[in-house]
Specification:
- The complex is a heterotrimer of chains A (about 425), B (about 350) and C (about 290).
- With about 425 residues, chain A is an alpha/beta fold.
- Chain A has helices spanning about 1-15, 20-25, 45-55, 70-80, 95-100, 105-115, 145-150, 160-170, 185-200, 215-230, 240-250, 265-270, 275-280, 310-325, 355-360, 370-385, 395-410; strands spanning about 35-40, 60-65, 85-90, 120-125, 130-145, 180, 255-260, 280-285, 300-305, 340, 365.
- Chain A folds into two domains: about 1-135 and about 300-365, D-Maltodextrin-Binding Protein, domain 2 (3-Layer(aba) Sandwich); about 140-300 and about 365-410, D-Maltodextrin-Binding Protein, domain 2.
- In chain A, strands 1, 2, 3, 4, 5, 6, 7, 8, 9, 10 and 11 form an eleven-stranded mixed sheet that branches.
- In chain A, helix 3 packs across helix 14 (about 310-325).
- Chain A is globular.
- The termini of chain A are far apart.
- Chain B is mainly alpha-helical and about 350 residues long.
- In chain B, strand 2 and strand 3 form a beta hairpin.
- In chain B, helix 7 (about 150-165) runs antiparallel to helix 10 (about 200-230), helix 11 (about 235-240) packs across helix 12 (about 245-275) and helix 12 runs antiparallel to helix 15.
- Chain C has about 290 residues and is mainly alpha-helical.
- Chain C is built from 14 helices and no strands.
- Chain C has helices at about 10-35, 40-45, 50-55, 55-65, 70-80, 80-110, 115-130, 135-145, 155-175, 180-190, 195-225, 225-230, 240-245, 255-285.
- Classes of the chains: A alpha/beta (about 425), B mainly alpha (about 350), C mainly alpha (about 290).
- Chains in contact: A-B, A-C, B-C.
- The interface between A and B is large, with 76 and 61 residues.
C-alpha cells in the first residue's frame, strides 16, 4: 500500500514542492468583502468552512452546511447579488450549477491569488477552471480479516471472487449473509449500478449526445451481478442505505462489502462494535467485474466554487479565504483523519488506503455530465423491480431508458 | 353578515393564503405547462485530480439567447402531463391495444411510474382512513369510561403517536421491526417463522406502512371523537335506557348519529392527509416496495438535476385527485350552506 | 357520571382491556426509545441481538456502566440543541398566536355569512390544503432569496401560519357555527358594531374551541419538517431539522443517539403541557368544535 500512497502523493508533492513553504506561512487576514458558504455538513467540509470563515473574520461571513445543500444552492446563487458566494459541491452536483450558469470561471482569480494551488486540485471544464477540489472519496472493498482467514480465503479483488468467497463463508456456516452493500432503492442503488456498469466497460450515452444506451449486454451483466450478490445479502437489502449497511457491519453480520472510503474510519474505531469486529476490519482496493479491467467504482472529489452574481470584491474575498482553507494550513491532528485530502502535507492513514488504491487502479471519476443526474434518478426508481424478480433485466433497462428519456426531454437535453 | 365587515374579518387570513398558497399554486400550474429550452450539447474535456475525461456539457452561450427571450421556458401545453412519467397516454393506449388479457394490461399499467404510485396511494387512503375512524372511535369510547383522575395521563399516552416527531418516530419503529429488532423478533415468534422479514417483502411492507399510518393518525380521530362524546345529550341517553335500549343500541342510535358530523370532518382531513402519504415511506426506506405521488414529487425535486415541470405536473394531478376524492363531502357542505340561509 | 354511563362488568372489562392494549401500542415505542436513549448506538440498533438493548452489552463494554447519558450530553451541550429548542419555542408561540388571531376573525365571519362566496372561500381553503407542501416550499426559495427573506424565523413563522390557515379555518368555522347566532346578533341590536359584538360577546366564550385548534396548530409548527428544513438558516434551525442533521449523510456517519436523546428530551415538556391543558382541550371540544 505504501507504493500507492507515494504514487498519488508523489504528483502532488512534485507540483507544490516549491510553493508549500510559502502557503504555510501565509498570513490570512481578510477584512473586507463578504463570504457565505453553502455545502454538505460532514466534518471535513465543516473544517474547511470554519477555517475559511476564520480567515475572513474581518469580512461579512456566513455558512449554511446542510444535507439539503443541493436544493438550496441554485436558488441561493441565482439572485443578484447571490446569497451564497460559494457552494461546496462534488463532481455530481457541480453540473447543476454549471447548467444554471450560477458559478464563475476562476481563471483570473487563480492567476491573481491562486499561485499556490497545485494544478491537480483545479477542476477544469472545457479549459475553464470551475472549481478547486480539496478531498477525494471512493467506494471500495471492506473485509473482515478473521472471517476470510477462518474460511481460508484470499482477499477478493473481483466481484466473482466475492461471490465465491461468500458461498464458502456461508457453506462453512460462519455467516448466513456475508455480503453487505448500500442497496436501498433510490440514490444508493443507482450508485451501485453506476459502479457496476462502469466496471463492465459500458458507456451510459451515445458519444456527444444525451441519448441513453444502457439496454445492452453490459447493462444486463451489471444487473445480473448485482442480483447474484443480493443472494448473499440480508433479505432486507433494498432498505439498507449506507447508514444501515454500516450498522450491519458493526453488528458483525457482514464480512465483505463495497463501502465509501469516508465511512471506514468509524468502522475501524472502537465505538459501536465488538473488538473482534473492529480489530479485524480491513480495507481493500476497488473490485472489478468481468474482464474489462476497469474497476467497478467511481471516484469523487469535493471542491469549492465561486458564485457568478457577486461583486469582484466579494469574489476575491471568497476565493482567498477558501484557497487558504484548502491549503496545507488546514491540516492538523484533528483534521488529518477527516478525509483523503488532496493538498500537500496529507499523511494517509490505514483507513484511507482503499480510496488511494481506487485512485491508483485508474478508476473512473463519477461522470460530470449534465444529464447524468436524470439517469441516476431513473436508475434508483427502477432497479428494485429487477432485483425483486418482478421483471426481466431487459424490461428493467427499457423502463430506465424510457423514464430517463421523458425526463431528459422535459429538460431540453433531448428533442 | 354585511359584505364590508366580512371583508375586513377575513382579510388577514385571505392575504396570507393568497400570498403563500394561491400564488405558488398559480406558478406551479404555469410551470407544469412549460419545459426547458433545447440545450445545445457540446463535447468538452474535463480535468481534475483524477486526470482528464471527455464529457458532454451544455453550451451556455447558445442556450442563453433562447432563455433570455422566453424566461419561462418552452411552452409545452399538456405534454408533461402526457409523458411517460405522468399519465403516459401513448403507453397506456399501446398497452391496451397490445395486451391480450386484462391482466397483461394491468401489469403494464402498474409498471408505469404514475399508475404504480397511484395504486399504492389509493389503497393506502382506502384502508387507513376507515381504520383510523373506527379505531379512533373505539379508543375515544374506552378513554371516556376511565376514572376522571386517570384521564390526563391516558390522554397524553393516547396522543403520543401524534406528538413524537414523525421523522424520528417512524425511524425508531423501522429499527424495531427489523428482523433482529424487538418487534421483528416478536413477529417471527408469533408467526413461528425465523426467516420472516417485514422489510423484505412488498405485501408485508404495505401492511406495515398502513399499520403505521393508522397508528399515527388514531390520536387525531380519538381526540375529536372524545370531545364529541362529552356533548352527547345525557337526557336522550337516559330516556333510551328507560325505554329498554341495550348498551349497543344506545351507541348505535344515539351516540353515532350525534358524532356523524365529526366523522365527516375527520374523513375530510384524513382522506387528504393519507392521499399525500410521504413521511412513512421515507422513514421506512420503502421506495422499493411502495411509491406514492408525494414521493414522485420528492424524487423529482431531490435529484442532481431538479425536474421542476415534472414535479409541478404531479402536484397538479395530486390536487385534482384530492378534489375528486373529497367531492362527496364538498357537495354535502354546499347543501348545508343552502339550508342555513 | 350519570346512570346512563354505568356499565355492566363484562363490558367494562372489554373496554378496559382494549384501552390497555391501545395504551401499550401507543406508548411502547416511545418508552422503548426512552430506555434506549441511555444506551450506546450499538445497543439501541441491536442489530446483533435484540436482547442487547435490554441488557446493554455494548454500553457496558464502551462506557463501563449499563446506562450512559452521552447522547444527552452530546445533543444538548456539544451540539447546542438548546438553541434549536429555543427557536422552536419562538416559532411555536408565534405560529399559534398568529394562526389563531387570523383564524378566529376569518372563521367567525365565515360562520356568520350566508352568502355563497363564504362557501367558495372554504372550498378554496380545502383545495389549498391539498397541495403537497414540498412543491410550495420549492416555489418559495427563489423569491425569498431574491428579497432577502430566506433564513429568518419570521419568514418561517408566516409561512407556517399560511399553510396552517385552511385547517384552522375549517376547525374554527365549525366551532363558531355551534355558538348561537342570537348571542352576537342581539348585541348588535343593542347598538354594537360587528367587531364590538365579536369582542364583547364571542371572545369570552370562544376559548375552549380556540385552545383545541391551538393544540393542532402547535403540533403542526412543532413537527414540521418540509418548511423548516428548507427555509431556516443554520443558526435559526428548529428542533426537527436539527434532529435530521444528526442522522448523517450517504457518505458519512451521523450520530443517531444524539437524535434519540433529543427526541426524548423534547417530549417531556409536552407531557406537562398536555396534562396541564387536558381539561381545556376536552372542554374546548366539548363546547362543540369540529362539527363537519
Amino acid at each position: 500500500m505504501n507504493m500507492i500512497k507515494t504514487a498519488l502523493l508523489g504528483t502532488a508533492i512534485a507540483a507544490v514542492a516549491t510553493t508549500s513553504a510559502m502557503a504555510d506561512g501565509h498570513a490570512c487576514a481578510i477584512d473586507s468583502g463578504r463570504i457565505s458558504i453553502i455545502g454538505n455538513e460532514f466534518p471535513a467540509i465543516q473544517s474547511v468552512s470554519a477555517l475559511a470563515l476564520e480567515c475572513a473574520a474581518g469580512a461579512e461571513t456566513a455558512s449554511n452546511l446542510t444535507a439539503d445543500h443541493q436544493t438550496l444552492n441554485v436558488a441561493g446563487m441565482t439572485g443578484n447579488p447571490a446569497e451564497y458566494t460559494s457552494a461546496i459541491v462534488a463532481n455530481s452536483s457541480i453540473v447543476a450549477l454549471i447548467n444554471e450558469d450560477v458559478i464563475q470561471p476562476l481563471d483570473a482569480l487563480v492567476a491573481e491569488y491562486g499561485a499556490d494551488i497545485p494544478p491537480h486540485q483545479l477542476i477544469t471544464v472545457d479549459g475553464n477552471i470551475m472549481a478547486v477540489a480539496f478531498m477525494a472519496n471512493a467506494q471500495h472493498l471492506v473485509y473482515r480479516k478473521d472471517v476470510l482467514e477462518q474460511a481460508g480465503l484470499e482477499v477478493p479483488t473481483s466481484y466473482e471472487e466475492v461471490l465465491a468467497a461468500a458461498e464458502k463463508i456461508r457453506a462453512d456456516g460462519i455467516m448466513e449473509n456475508p455480503v453487505g452493500g448500500a442497496y436501498a432503492a433510490g440514490w444508493n442503488l443507482a450508485q451501485e449500478f453506476t459502479n457496476m456498469y462502469i466496471g463492465t466497460g459500458g458507456s451510459f450515452f451515445e458519444p456527444g449526445t444525451a441519448n441513453v444506451t444502457i439496454n445492452n449486454a453490459q447493462g444486463v451483466e451489471a444487473l445480473e451481478m448485482m442480483k447474484a450478490l443480493t443472494a448473499y445479502m440480508n433479505p432486507d437489502y433494498l432498505t439498507h442505505d449506507s447508514n444501515a449497511t454500516s450498522a450491519e457491519w458493526e453488528a458483525g453480520n457482514v464480512a465483505l462489502m463495497n463501502m465509501w472510503g469516508s465511512r471506514t474510519g468509524v468502522l475501524m474505531d472502537d465505538e459501536g462494535s465488538a473488538p473482534e469486529v473492529y480489530e479485524n476490519t480491513a480495507v481493500g482496493g476497488p473490485l472489478t467485474v468481468g474482464d474489462s479491467g476497469t474497476p467497478a467504482t467511481t471516484l469523487w472529489w469535493d471542491g469549492w466554487t465561486v458564485a457568478k452574481n457577486i461583486s469582484d470584491e466579494e469574489a476575491a474575498t471568497t476565493f482567498q479565504a477558501l484557497a487558504h482553507a484548502t491549503s496545507p494550513a488546514l491540516l492538523n491532528d484533528e483534521t488529518m483523519s477527516q478525509a483523503v485530502w488532496l493538498m500537500e502535507g496529507f499523511e494517509a492513514q490505514p483507513v484511507n488506503e482503499g480510496v488511494l488504491a481506487s485512485v491508483a487502479a485508474g478508476s473512473t471519476p463519477y461522470p460530470m455530465v449534465p444529464f447524468q443526474g436524470l439517469l441516476h434518478s431513473a436508475l434508483g426508481d427502477n432497479i428494485a423491480d429487477f432485483l425483486q424478480g418482478n421483471e426481466t433485466a431487459e424490461q428493467t433497462l427499457a423502463d430506465i431508458e424510457a423514464a430517463y428519456t421523458a425526463a431528459a426531454t422535459e429538460q431540453g437535453f433531448l428533442q | 353578515m354585511k359584505h364590508g365587515s366580512f371583508f375586513w374579518f377575513v382579510l388577514p387570513s385571505v392575504i396570507l393564503m393568497i400570498l403563500f398558497i394561491a400564488l405558488p399554486i398559480v406558478s406551479v400550474v404555469t410551470q407544469s405547462l412549460y419545459t426547458q429550452h433545447e440545450q445545445v450539447i457540446v463535447t468538452v474535456e474535463n480535468c481534475g485530480p483524477f486526470g482528464c475525461t471527455e464529457a458532454q456539457s451544455v453550451d451556455q452561450e447558445a442556450t442563453q439567447a433562447l432563455r433570455d427571450a422566453q424566461p419561462l421556458g418552452k411552452f409545452a401545453g399538456l405534454d408533461v402531463y402526457k409523458d411517460r412519467n405522468h399519465l403516459a397516454i401513448t403507453d397506456v393506449a399501446r398497452a391496451w391495444e397490445n395486451s391480450d388479457s386484462f391482466r397483461g394490461f394491468w401489469n403494464t399499467l402498474m409498471n408505469l411510474p404514475f399508475y404504480g404510485a397511484l395504486s399504492f396511494t389509493l389503497t393506502y387512503t382506502a384502508i387507513v382512513t376507515p381504520m383510523t375512524i373506527l379505531l379512533g372511535f373505539a379508543v375515544a369510547i374506552a378513554v371516556n369510561s376511565v376514572a376522571r383522575s386517570l384521564r390526563g395521563p391516558t390522554i397524553f399516552f393516547s396522543l403520543l403517536p401524534m406528538i413524537v416527531t414523525p421523522l424520528v418516530g417512524a425511524l425508531i419503529l423501522f429499527w424495531m421491526v427489523d428482523a433482529r429488532g424487538i418487534l421483528g423478533t416478536g413477529l417471527q415468534w408469533l408467526a413461528n417463522d425465523p426467516t420472516l422479514s417485514v422489510k423484505a417483502s412488498t405485501p408485508m411492507m404495505w401492511i406495515m406502512l398502513m399499520v403505521y399510518g393508522t397508528w399515527s393518525s388514531i390520536p387525531f380521530a380519538f381526540i375529536v371523537y372524545y370531545a364529541g362524546l362529552q356533548t352527547v345529550n345525557q337526557d336522550t341517553l337516559e330516556a333510551a335506557m328507560i325505554d329498554g335500549a341495550s348498551r349497543w343500541e344506545r351507541i348505535r342510535y344515539v351516540v353515532i348519529p350525534h358524532l356523524a358530523p365529526l366523522t365527516t370532518f375527520i374523513a375530510l382531513i384524513q382522506l387528504m392527509d393519507n392521499f399525500r402519504v410521504f413521511e412513512p415511506i421515507i422513514s421506512f426506506q420503502a421506495q422499493a416496495h411502495a411509491r406514492s405521488l408525494s414521493i414522485a414529487i420528492f424524487t423529482d425535486l431531490g435529484g442532481e438535476t431538479r425536474l421542476l415541470s415534472s414535479a409541478a405536473a404531479t402536484s397538479v394531478l395530486t390536487i385534482v385527485f384530492v378534489a375528486i376524492l373529497l367531492s362527496p363531502v364538498l357537495v354535502r357542505t354546499w347543501r348545508d350552506f343552502g339550508t342555513s340561509k | 357520571m350519570s346512570t346512563a354511563t354505568q356499565r355492566p362488568l363484562n363490558v367494562r372489562f372489554l373496554a378496559t382491556s382494549f384501552l390497555v392494549l391501545w395504551l401499550i401500542l401507543a406508548a411502547f415505542p416511545f418508552l422503548w426509545t426512552v430506555w434506549g436513549s441511555f444506551k450506546v448506538e450499538g445497543d439501541f440498533f441491536s442489530k446483533a441481538d435484540w436482547a442487547n438493548s435490554m441488557f446493554g452489552t455494548l454500553t457496558q463494554a464502551e462506557t463501563g456502566g449499563a446506562f450512559t447519558g452521552a447522547g444527552y450530553f452530546g445533543a444538548w451541550i456539544q451540539e447546542e440543541f438548546w438553541r434549536a429548542a429555543l427557536n422552536t419555542t419562538i416559532v411555536c408561540f408565534f405560529v399559534v398566536t398568529i394562526s389563531l388571531t387570523c383564524g378566529t376573525l376569518a372563521a367567525y365571519a365565515l360562520s356568520r355569512s350566508t352568502y355563497r362566496y363564504a362557501f367558495w372561500l372554504l372550498l378554496f381553503a380545502l383545495i389549498f390544503r391539498a397541495t403537497p407542501p414540498i412543491i410550495l416550499v420549492s416555489g418559495y426559495l427563489l423569491p425569498f432569496f431574491e428579497w432577502n427573506l430566506w433564513g429568518h424565523l419570521s419568514t418561517t413563522i408566516i409561512v407556517l401560519v399560511a399553510i396552517n390557515q385552511p385547517f384552522t379555518l375549517w376547525m374554527l368555522h365549525s366551532f363558531f357555527k355551534n355558538i348561537p347566532k342570537d348571542l352576537d346578533e342581539s348585541a348588535m341590536v343593542d347598538g354594537c358594531t360587528r367587531f364590538q359584538a365579536f369582542r364583547h360577546v364571542i371572545i369570552p366564550i370562544m376559548w375552549p374551541g380556540v385552545i383545541t385548534t391551538g393544540l393542532f396548530s402547535f403540533l403542526l409548527a412543532y413537527n414540521d419538517f418540509a418548511v423548516t428544513q428548507m427555509l431556516l438558516s443554520k443558526e435559526n434551525q428548529t428542533v426537527v431539522p436539527k434532529l435530521f442533521s444528526f442522522l448523517g449523510t450517504t457518505q458519512t456517519k451521523g450520530n443517531v443517539m444524539f437524535a434519540v436523546a433529543a427526541v426524548v428530551s423534547i417530549t417531556a415538556p409536552l407531557f406537562v403541557m398536555i396534562v396541564f391543558f387536558q381539561r381545556q382541550i376536552v372542554s374546548g371540544l366539548t363546547a362543540g368544535a369540529v362539527k363537519g
